[in-house]
Write a structure and sequence with these properties.
Blueprint lengths: L8 E4 L5 H11 L6 H9 L3 E6 L5 E10 L2 E9 L8 H15 L4 E7 L3 H9 L3 E11 L5 E10 L5
Length: 158
């Protein structure tokens, strides 16, 4: 299948999508969001989106929080079989444009220091290093891992 967002059907996430989204998240993360976390995001009115392949399988998802003129990417995932095909970049571009049209002038995110692929993606999209959050993420054996905080100006809408 060709890469990028056009190869998939995307829409606003519903409660019925949560089990499949949480299952994908569990495949991607050592410390995944739970179904409860995704339901809480939906209940809180966060911008939750999901993309499906032609067979109806979840291939990507993203959750963004809006506060005044700021947006914050809370989680994003792309199925391993859809990675390295432009899907992550396409999802991020979609979420940034959506945030901009919602009045956000900037987007923030945190990413594990060790997640070089994601950091490279965000840098390629124009996100810049803002700071470190020490011991932000859980890690193996009860340890904690630092997060890189990144920021991108969104306005004017692209």
């Amino acid at each position: 299948m060709m890469g990028g967002i056009d190869s998939y059907t995307g829409r606003v996430m519903t409660p019925a999508d949560v089990p499949a989204v949480a299952a994908l998240e569990a495949r991607l993360q050592a410390f995944p969001w739970t179904e409860g976390n995704f339901h809480d995001a939906l209940d809180s009115g966060y911008d939750c989106r999901v993309w499906f392949d032609a067979a109806g399988a979840v291939r990507a998802y993203a959750v963004v929080l809006y506060v005044l003129d700021e947006s914050h990417l809370l989680t994003l995932g792309v199925a391993p079989e859809a990675q390295r095909q432009g899907m992550g970049s396409a999802v991020m571009r979609h979420m940034m444009l959506t945030a901009c049209t919602q009045g956000a002038t900037q987007m923030f995110l945190e990413v594990r220091v060790s997640n070089l692929a994601a950091r490279g993606l965000y840098e390629a999209l124009g996100f810049q290093f803002l700071s470190l959050r020490h011991r932000y993420y859980p890690a193996a054996d009860g340890a904690r891992e630092d997060a890189v905080v990144m920021r991108k100006e969104l306005a004017p809408c692209e």
